[in-house]
Amino acid sequence: MRRQERQPGRALPGAVGALCRALPPPARPAPDTLRRARFDRPQASLDFWRLLYALLKQIHGGKWTESDAIDNQIRFVKSALWYHGYGRPELYRLPSDGSAGSRELLLAFSWLLHRLSLLEQLLARNRVKTGDETSVCTCEDDLPNSQAGTTEIAPEYGLEDRVDVRYLQWLNGRLRFQWRSLHAQHQEQCKLLHKIHLFTSGSHMDQTLGHFSVTETDLVRQPENYKQLLQLLEFETVQLEAFLEWKQLEPVYWQWMETVLDNMAEEGNMCKSQATHVEKSGLPKVTSCCPWAVSLTGQIDRLSRDLMTLRDQLHKLVTHRKAAWCEKVKTREEELQKEGFSAIARKIQESVELKLLNLTHLCAPKKPQLHGSCRLVFRSKHPASKMGFGRSVSKEPVSAVSATEVIRELQMREASLERELKQLQEECRQRLDEIAEGLDGVICISP
């Protein structure tokens, strides 16, 4: 029994070390940082904020530098954790200078490991790519489960004042311009890739591919660059070995985290018992030491009665106004039914057609959805290129899908979204018209 109890304690340094080595080198923490965070040492707080900032920046595809201000890093980490559905309010109350809260940050880091499969995502994002790849996603845009019920856990900071509509319009225009620039750059990249694949066709030793990628073409032109590529592959191999070791020792880490949670629960119960004791015995009665408390209580009672009377009067006034407004709305509905019966019938018909199209799309046999990175492979025998996951040198056929099929499916998805957008715009327009009719002396001009 004693040997079994000592084994997790001996394996814990190996598990923590493997976890740290499996993380990307720029954001790799020291194993001692996690051990200090268990005891909520303030010395580990800044290191953990920087660690979470670097990891979440990589997950969201953003650039980061160590020179970023610590308050900006903390603000980004809180926003990203709230976005992913992290629900402990204690983390969002941590100070913005990073002076405390290392144990809360350890919990958040462990939550990311479990909920987001953090290591797997980082390994997939940072792996060495020797082939030409593109990201393909034909999945439905459903709200993730982690987003459900997170609207009440917003961080403390936010928009203090209302944002000017003109500023939002400027942001929208800027976003459209950047999107068009990105689209033009992507088209230019596709043209260059097509030239490389066409000119190197038949040169690759793997008959499944048949052509060189950009990296392979660069190695042919500049053979001295193979040393850098070999070094990157060695780093990735070491990281993958650490990940395999981590997967074997992962249960030890989660047992350790259970002890961390138990310690936090015990400290929370002690704080609550102390607060209850102070509340019961530390405060004397108000009436025993404050002679003016009786008159103050009488004034509060009178104010309470006055507020109750005002509330009753407001309730009666609101009920009367609501009844009058419902009568006006009913009269207006009858007028609209007489005047715009044909327009209403046309809108109903459009809505029915949209629902029929959606039902046709739902009842159609579903194809396997694509999601993730696919390797671009040029096929000169076919009218369009094909995409498939890159594999090692093999004579076995690689699972592939034609680019035209992906484009056709995305176009159908785009048409469905456009129909849904038009329907929502029409509903918003009707809602605005109803609101404008209730405003006297206001003229609304459509843009």
Task: Write structural notes for this entry.
- The protein is mainly α and 447 residues long.
- Helices cover 66% and strands 4% of the residues.
- It has 14 helices and 4 strands.
- It has a 4-stranded antiparallel β-sheet.
- A hairpin with an 8-residue loop joins strand 2 and strand 3 (386-388).
- Helix 2 (31-38) packs across helix 6 (102-115).
- The longest helix is centred in the middle third of the chain and has 56 residues, at 226-281.
- The chain is flat and about 85 Å long.
- The relative contact order is 0.08.
- Mean pLDDT is 77; it is low at 1-6, 142-160, 277-292 and 382-398.
How do the strands and helices of this protein lay out in sequence?
Layout: H1 2-22, H2 31-38, H3 45-59, H4 70-84, H5 89-92, H6 102-115, H7 118-126, E1 133-137, H8 165-199, H9 214-221, H10 226-281, H11 286-289, H12 293-339, H13 341-363, E2 371-377, E3 386-388, E4 400-402, H14 403-437
Antiparallel strand pairs: 1-2, 2-3, 3-4
Helix pairs in contact: 1-10, 2-6, 3-4, 3-6
Structure at a glance:
The chain is mainly α and 447 residues long. It contains 14 helices and 4 strands.
Essential attributes:
single chain; 447 residues; disordered N terminus; mainly alpha; 14 helices
Q: How many strands, which pairing sense, and closed or not: the largest β-sheet?
A: 4 strands, antiparallel
Order the strands across the largest sheet as they lie in space.
Answer: 1-2-3-4
Beta-strand portion reads: under 5%
Assembly state: single chain
Low-confidence stretches: 1-6, 142-160, 277-292, 382-398
Q: What's the order of the H and E elements?
A: HHHHHHHEHHHHHHEEEH
- Computed structural class: mainly alpha
Characterize the overall form.
Answer: flat
Distance between the first and last residues' Cα:
78 Å
The helicity comes to: 55-70%
Query: Given the structure, what is the number of helices?
Result: 14
**Global mean pLDDT:** 77
